[in-house]
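Mods, move this if it's the wrong board.
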Amino acid sequence: MKIIRICIFLCIWFFSIPLIWSQDCTTYHEVGDCIMDRDKAYKIYSQSRSAVISATDTIEFGIVFYGQKDYICSFCTHQKFYPVRFRLIDPDTREVLYDNKDDNYIESLGVGFDVTKTLIIQVSVLARKAKPEEIKEYLSCIGLLLQYKNYPDKKVNLQM
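Not the wrong board. C-alpha cells:
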C-alpha cells in the first residue's frame, strides 16, 4: 500500500512539474509591451493573439480582416528576443504581401481593407540581445495586439 502511494505521488509530481515551470502567454498581448501601442481611437480586435516562442520558431496566425476597417497590428516580446520579424502572406498564393524586414523591423503596422480578407501573419524573433545559450534554452511570449476602427462615414454633398 505504501509503495502505491509513493508511485501515485511520484506520478503526480512528475506530470505537474511542466505545468509549474511553463509560461502562460495567453494574454501577453494585453500586458506586454504591446499595450504601449494602444490607441484610444481604436478598439481591441478579438483575434489578438499570444503564444510561446523560441528564437528558432516561426509561428503563423490566420487572421480575418473585415472590410471597411483600419487596423493596427502591434508585436511584442521579451526585450532579449527583439526584433520581431513579421510577414503578411496571402493564404491562397503564399505570396508575401509585406515583410517588416524591409522597414528595419518596425513593431507596428497600420493597414486598411475595403473588402474582407484573410491573411497569414508569420512571426519569428531574431533575439539579437540574447546570449547563444539563451537562444537555445529559453522560451518567451510573443504578443500580437490587433486594433481596429471603422472607416469614417463618407458624406455626399448634392448640389443642384
